[in-house]
Design goal:
This protein is α+β, with helices and mostly antiparallel strands. It has helices at about 20-30, 55-70, 90-100; strands at about 15-20, 35-40, 50-55, 100-105, 110, 120-125, 140-145. It has three helices and seven strands. The chain has a four-stranded antiparallel β-sheet with strand order 5-4-2-7.
Length: about 150
């Protein structure tokens, strides 16, 4: 079985944001030389998510608005986690609702999203207000299918 790992790093200057990572993940898959298999995209941060959906600005805005209305950041005093001195309790909850990682098929050496036009993106949350950016380190593990099972 072949495996490959690639670390991607992103800086998100705002408290939250969506970053289309499909081009970077596609380049990593090409670099892996895996023709058929699976690609795990896993954000190595507890308040980051990866999801697959249309890469459309209106949808991005809808996501950000929906999650902020559902789990508002402020007032930060409403969240017990923030009693520790952090201010990111809402980010932990949003990540839990959004999910953590995605697995995408690799078909003929390329990401295979199926028939729809989809993309992978990060909803990113800054760790604390003292921090100006995030460094995301999603590893890429591309594995060929196991035959004979």
């Amino acid at each position: 079985m072949k495996s490959f790992r690639k670390v991607l790093t992103m800086n998100v200057p705002e408290r939250k944001g969506l970053v289309n990572i499909t081009p970077e993940v596609s380049r990593a898959v090409a670099e892996s030389k895996v023709r058929e298999g699976l690609c795990l995209v896993n954000p190595m941060h507890i308040t980051a998510s990866v999801f697959i959906n249309d890469d459309e600005p209106g949808l991005h805005s809808d996501y950000l608005r929906f999650f902020e209305e559902l789990v508002p950041h402020e007032p930060v005093e409403q969240w017990r986690h923030n009693d520790t001195g952090e201010d990111n309790a809402d980010a932990h909850i949003k990540r839990q609702l959004m999910g953590r990682e995605v697995v995408v098929a690799i078909t003929d050496g390329k990401l295979d999203f199926g028939r729809c036009s989809s993309s992978a993106a990060y909803p990113a949350e800054r760790i604390t207000t003292r921090r100006r950016d995030n460094i995301w380190q999603p590893p890429m593990r591309c594995r060929p299918p196991v035959r004979g099972r």
